[in-house]
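Wed. Picked up where I left off yesterday with Carboxyvinyl-carboxyphosphonate phosphorylmutase. The coffee machine is broken again, so keeping this brief.
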Amino acid sequence: MSTAVPAPLRDLIGVDGGLLLPGVANALTARIAEDLGFRAVYITGAGVANTFLGLPDIGLLSLTEMAAHVGAISDAVDVPVIVDADTGFGNAISVVRTVRLLEKAGACGIQLEDQVAPKRCGHFEGQKVIPSAEMRQKIRAATESRRSENTLIIARTDARAEHGLSEALDRAAAYAEAGADVLFIEGLRSRDELAEAGAALPGVPKLANMVEGGKTPLLAREDLLAMGYSILLYANAAMQGAIHGAQKVLAGLRDAGSLGPVLDDLTPWHERQRLVRRDDFNDLDKRYQAE
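Structure written out below (tokens, as returned):
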């Protein structure tokens, strides 16, 4: 259980090398990321939908379901937690409740996007966006309802898919003017588009989303930093690795009828217990044992 106050997320964005941000879908993955030295984690809506519901990222998660995940994850780690809040779960008034509930659950950064509800993954086909003016009001509602100035509002636009890069850049500028702390232009299709988006609006932090199998090319860290990005998001890399590991181990178990062939692919018992802080709870058990 975490008792430390996370470092302000703002302080992590401008550091040399940028903020390398892993996506997590549950508290255990967040613990692994923190243990490996990552300075913040991102609760991926796609990852939670895939792992919690076993369903695709098409806007099926509810606010209360996501808030429960934020609470569990933020309680498990001492690093800042950013959450994918999709479209804000409604209109601008709904965003007020969304921000307050997620912030109360422990979110240090809240991402909102301008898709029409129900949203869909930014690397699927067929995204539709709401009017820019409506999204600006959602951003205004988010910034005015957050309880701490250290809670960052990340504005994502999916306009590239429906209207092209120029419209996406215009929207990003409007969202920054409305008060967004970080800009996220999703679904960029080429290295040139990444470079153009990264160079836009100097001084405003920008996030690049690297998705294996998605529409955006996977570029090296130094290339993205040189283009002007300060947050480098790998939203579902950990989940995809976990799926691969589970498939390999379970296929081996199915075929052999035992763990013999796949023992080397298992995290050892003692490492698993270390990651979930079993020793800390043993100490608590001793501390509060009845005399």
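Quick read: The radius of gyration is 20 Å.
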